[in-house]
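Why run this: before we spend reagent on co-expression, it is cheaper to look at a predicted model of the complex and decide which construct boundaries make sense. The entries below are exactly what would go into the expression plan.
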Amino acid sequence: MENPVQLEGTISKKAFWSALTAGFLALGLLLVSFGISGVAYAVPIAGVGDFYVEFDKLEGTGYTFYPKMGETSSEDSAPQGTNLIENLTITNLQLYKDFKVGSEWIRVKIQASKPVQISGLQHDAGLIEADAKFQNLVLEENHSDDWQKQFQQKSSTITLEHAKLKTHYLFQKTINMNGMKLTVERIKK
Amino acid sequence: MWWKNKSFLISCSVAIMFFSLFSFSYGARAETTTDMEGFIIEADRVVGTGMSASIVERETSATDKKPMLQIKYKSATIYGMKLTKRVNSGNGPISIVLNAKGPVTVYGMTVDISAISFKGACIHAAETVPQLGMENVTMVAHYMESDDSVINQLTLKTVSGNAGPEKPDQLQILQDLSKLPLEQLKKEIEKIMSGHLPLTCADSNTAGASEDLVGKITDPIQDVIGGITDPLSPVTKPLEPVLKPLDPVVSVLDPVLKPVETVLDPVLQPLEPALNPLKPALKPLDPVVQQLEPVIKPLEPVINGTVNTANQTVQTVCSKLQSANGVITKELGLQLIDEALAKKVDLNQVCPTDTTLTNQLVKIEESLLNTLGISKLLGLLIPNDTVSKLTKMRDEIVKKPDGSVIYSQ
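The model came back. Tokens follow.
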């Protein structure tokens, strides 16, 4: 009865840290590459399950929202909302995901100390919490057989402040992320 | 007989069964689609200005055109707003839920609705800007737009299943309007369009309130007085044909006048020498108006209502301050100072019941004194004279261009 417990602890940690190191190296290379050029193109963040996006302020133009069904860390198909923003600037951006390692929790966090400029954002979220401002906001129904087109929310501009977004998928056509920092820290939950 | 053949009967039974199944399933799908139509907007309270309404046709998720009520506001503040949209995703129903824990402020809002239930919506005509209030609002909307929207403490989530409340059963407004004769219907719509008609009142749970209620609300004093003096017309007019041929008909009039003797005796005597010409006969009617005192009594709640309206004007200044989100224009600044002058209190005591607004007013006052250079003007000569200080501040603000921002957080 004791052996399996010892084996499980040793192997899972080793495998985890190896995978995490490899992942960070790859992510670091990616970030360094666009840190040199200043701009990264067609950047998806997916396949890591749910993660959180927080920021002080987002100012964007050309906003569209519609419902979708998509993959999450716990389900193959779960209800989500797709947010499309043509151009935006984010102040004090933080992306983080918490992992449970043994009995402890660690948080992998990417943050930018300078404003992040993004074009062609697709953001699939299950939950958005923020103080919001819209200009020319329209919520409308459309007569369509495609259920995703039956309801849309659009606005010419969008401003979100003090925001927290539970995110499942993130894609940017271009992103300019100066002052970026990647940290791994132990947290209490 | 060939039609008694077993295989033929089985074939027919199977065909009928499939036909029935198809019919039932089609009906169920259609019902589901209809139920998914519209997005449900709930609100604890909606306070809007510059409201108007009309009937329009609008696309929904199930049809290209559907008649619905279009309500427009120049500006509105929505408290306790929750918006739910149900969609049939193919993998089952899902719901988009937009919830605002803080107040939602919208400017230039248009909303097209097919069903609504609410209470307490009245126009407060005594205010400079027409204001419409509704409470416990639940509406099925199909289109909503606004020029500017501020949604504090927004939560937007997408969840499985049918969330949200039951839809209101019927569109009361359209139903009530449709019951009216054509001419009256036009009048009602004109009243809605001009912004003078409340959709309903607290005393009535039905939309499209009656004429009586409308009169009381749109102009509390004038309309109600009109409503009381109007009944005099049918009293005086029937007198005309009676008074002229009075001499030959006096005997007939006697039984009629007797029940009114207590009221008319002091009136009829001066009438007698002046019965032939009608004009002098009308003057003695003044005492009759005095006899209406018991009728005037119902005015008291209306007068009280006017007092309440004045209080609400003060609330409006405070609510405007709340809606301004820390950006004070020249006009709002003048309103606040006028309010403080009227009360003869410091600027920070204009909204004494709201701690947040009071703190904000303290900052505004300090900022105004500094930015306008009034502290230099006042110096230490009259530091405690509230009215003089406010007057100085007002004089300085008046010099600013219209629409300019005099304070921003």
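Chain B has a mean pLDDT of 67. The first strand of chain B starts at residue 39 and ends at 49. Bring this page to Monday's planning discussion.
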